[in-house]
Amino acid sequence: MVEERSLKVLSNDTTFFSKVSSTLTKLLTPTKIGINGMMINLKRSSLIKYFEQYKNAEKLNDVSKKEQFQNRYEESYTLYLESIDKHIMDSIYKKVKNNIASVFEKDALANYYNVVHLKDTEYIEYKYRKQKFLLDLDYQSLLSGKKEKIVVKYEPMYIEKMDIIYKGILKNYSVKLADGLRAKKINQTDLYKKIFETLEDYIKNILPIKFKIEGTEKYGKILEDYEEYERFSIGKLDERDFLEKNMILLSLSRTLFTHSLPLVAAEQCYNKLLIDTRNLITNTKVKEKKESTYQILLKLIEDYNVKLLSTKVYWDKPNEREEYKKFWEAYSKIGSSQEKEILSLRRELYNTEDEYEKYANIRKFYKNKLVELGVMRVVKNVPKTIKGHYKKGIKVK
User: Fold this and answer.
1) Of 83, 190, 341, 359, which residue is 20 to 30 A from 293 by alpha carbon distance?
2) pTM for the complete prediction?
3) How many other C-beta atoms lie within 10 A of the C-beta of residue 170?
């Protein structure tokens, strides 16, 4: 892919010659745009043609033709992206500079800057983000131009490339999370935020296109979660809504990005959500809101223990594996929602035991819930003071 040229915007002089130059640039810009637009159309047509030939050879299991067309497909993909990049540099940039750009073009250039600045510090992310930006820019231009026939041919290639790109981005984030030494040098909160934003971006913008092209039959496992996610895709969300939405995104990722967001990274994301949900429960004063957050926590505990940990093969601590086996054996036998709630609360008490002081408030909340459920009792405690007087209190065991 071509390297970026300088995008420095020079200030406009007010001299006669600068005004003449500016006027000529405005007159010539449409011609330049037309040439770049033609090149993009040509490169896009070649890309679609070689993509279709590559896919046909793949279906026929013709190894020699598949390799031949795959090479042509990848070469045409590079040339296609370069033509869009050139269009941004030669056309959109000049239109913005001369103040004749549309809002869409101004936003496109601003987003382009946001991608390019990653190059020196986060090259892997930059590599994927730039491809994503260029592909999406052309796709949006096709949609806005109402070029339905081209869109139909373009979308299969578009979603295949976007799948590769999103997987690459998430894999990069997963490596950062898994690398403990490196993780200390980065803001982990920002990293979790980026993971959830990337998952949502894919599920919001790419998955619907896949449903349209491939149908929903092959996605039966995730349709229920996807429909749940759609409830949070519009409107203003509060902190509880964000937690629930991220829980659904994480659940979807276990099917869509099993290898790109592997179990180790997904487990860290679940733990982050558990911590945030516990904190929200203890910090919420309104009883109704506290209870609704508690219901989110119960679902999160179940997802974490049943959907994720049940697939975990390697455990760092053997005792944790043995404790989980006990949980799983008990979970497999119970049937009622109340029994699941009791088991989940006991599991949480075990998981927070090592950091007793940190989780003192939420542990008290769990114990009170177990008292309400009738499986833990309140014991009156009558300790003796130093002076020999007695003071009554309540102790929850």
Assistant:
1) 190
2) 0.83
3) 24
